[in-house]
Amino acid sequence: MELINLKINQDVEIFSSFYEINQQQVPKVGSVSLEEFINLIKISDISYGIIKKGICLGFVICLRENTKYHSINYKFFQKRHKRFFYIDRIAVVNEYQSSGIGSTLYKKLLSFRDFFNIPICAEVNIDPPNELSINFHKKHGFSEIIESTIKEGYSVVYMEID
Fold first, then answer.
1. Cα–Cα distance between 69 and 107 in angstroms, integer?
2. 93, 141, 148, 159: which has the highest count of C-beta atoms within 10 A?
3. In sequence order, which residues have a C-beta less than 8 Å from that of residue 121 and are 6 or more positions away?
4. Residue range(s) defining the domain that contains residue 55
5. Beta strands of the chain (E only): which ranges?
6. CA torsion, points 125, 161, 137, 49, in degrees to nearest 10?
């Protein structure tokens, strides 16, 4: 498996493959257009993907504080912290979930947290439920902060690791 930096690798075909993973994982992650997905990578501070034998298996996209991003969830952490990494989305193809790909991506993120000494923040759906992701985040040291109902049928739990 190869870990690639999506900020450096500006290959539209690669972006399209990771975008397909994103859309496969809706509603666990938010649905976006390909253009919005590419823009997220462009405004991100950390974006990595994992490829095995030319096949995209999973990715993570993170933003820092003071990014021009209009997500309600991002804004929650913007109010809470002066400095932080916000995990906007992480997704792994169905066939490779629970295979260590997400952990590999998070290991990389945790190295940034250790280097910069700032929290990593995320939200996870509780309606629709995403228990697998909540357990995954807890396994990696994240704590639940508070639950929030964004709109009917869409609630999240905010999580972070210092």
1. 25
2. 159
3. 77, 80, 81, 84, 85, 86, 87, 158, 159, 160
4. 2-161
5. 2-5, 46-52, 55-64, 85-92, 120-127, 143-151, 154-161
6. 90
Instruction: List Cα–Cα distances, 135 to 25, 98, 126, 142, in angstroms.
Output: 17, 11, 12, 9
pLDDT band of residue 12 (cuts 50, 70, 90) is confident
Q: Choose among 62, 52, 56: nearest CA to 18.
A: 56
What's the farthest any 2 CA atoms get from each other in the chain? 42
**Tally of domains in the chain:** 1
* φ, ψ of residue 19 in degrees (nearest 5): -60, -40
Q: Which CATH number is 33's domain given? A: 3.40.630.30
| pTM assigned to the model | 0.94
Q: Of 142, 61, 73, nearest to 105 (Cα)? A: 61
Q: How far is CA 154 from CA 5, 61, 76, 128, 146, in A?
A: 31, 21, 16, 6, 14
Q: What is the pLDDT of residues 87-126, one digit of tens each?
A: 999 999 999 999 999 999 999 999 998 899 999 999 999 9
Instruction: Report the C-alpha gap between 124 and 150 in whole angstroms.
Output: 12
As a whole number of angstroms, the distance between CA 137 and CA 125 comes to: 12
